Amino acid sequence: MVNLKNFLCVTLLLITSTVTANDNTTKELDVFWQQLSETVTNGDFEQYSAGYHEDAILVSGFSKNSYSIKQALARWKQGFDDTKNGKMKASVKFVWTKRFVSDNTAHETGMFKYSTTDDEGITEDFIAHLTTLSVKKNGKWLIMMENQKSKATQQEWDAAQ
Q1: Closest of 22, 80, 23 to residue 51, by C-alpha
Q2: For every residue of the chain, which 3-state class applies, written as one string?
Q3: By C-alpha distance, which of 117, 99, 127, 124 is closest to 32?
Q4: Which residues make beta-bridge pairs with 95?
Q5: Going by DSSP bridges, is the β-strand pair 123-137/105-118 parallel, antiparallel, or unpaired?
Q6: Which residues, 6+ apart, have CB-to-CB distance to 114 below 8 Å?
Q7: pLDDT band at 5 (very low <50, low <70, confident <90, very high)
Q8: What is the pTM of this model?
Q9: HSE-up of 130 (CA within 13 Å, CB side)?
Q10: Which pLDDT score is estimated for 60?
Q11: Tens of pLDDT, residues 67-80
Q12: Phi then psi for 122, rounded to 5 degrees?
């Protein structure tokens, strides 16, 4: 028969180790998403693209399709160029409502808010529900799958903060 005291000690140790690892992973991911946001603000297409695994997939609830992130990046590049060249300002923020993480994997659910301001000062916001699947390779987080599910409201965004 298993000694209950030993069993409880081992179980507590495993839970504590997992919580600490998850806290560290969550902090790493927070830094990753902040750095990705900064690439949008700076119009740094190369650094933004480097946040994705080369075989990453974009799932679009808007077009009801999935395709290579390379195709999506090709569509998004002009916005980065316009930002870098001062033709517009852009920013993106992320808020996460569910995060399932381990030392080297992450499944995150939340929203993103992409904002642009044109040269006339007109700002437009686009808010969408988002799920991502990421992996840590050689010490670096990479997005494997981005699922832009559906449009979100400002009220949903505010509630998730």
Answers
A1: 80
A2: CCCHHHHHHHHHHHHHHHHHHHHHHHHHHHHHHHHHHHHHHHCCHHHHHCCEEEEEEEEECCCCEEEEHHHHHHHHHHHHHHHHCCCEEEEEEEEEEEEEECCCEEEEEEEEEEEEEECCCCEEEEEEEEEEEEEEECCEEEEEEEEEEEECCHHHHHHHC
A3: 99
A4: 111
A5: antiparallel
A6: 40, 90, 91, 92, 125, 126, 127, 128
A7: low
A8: 0.84
A9: 24
A10: 96
A11: 999 999 999 999 99
A12: -85, 125
Q: Give the separation between CA 4 and CA 71, rounded to whole angstroms.
A: 56
C-alpha 9/C-alpha 89 separation (Å) is: 54
- What's the one-letter identity of residue 70? K
Amino acid at 83: T
Rounded to whole angstroms, how far apart are CA atoms 123 and 62? 22
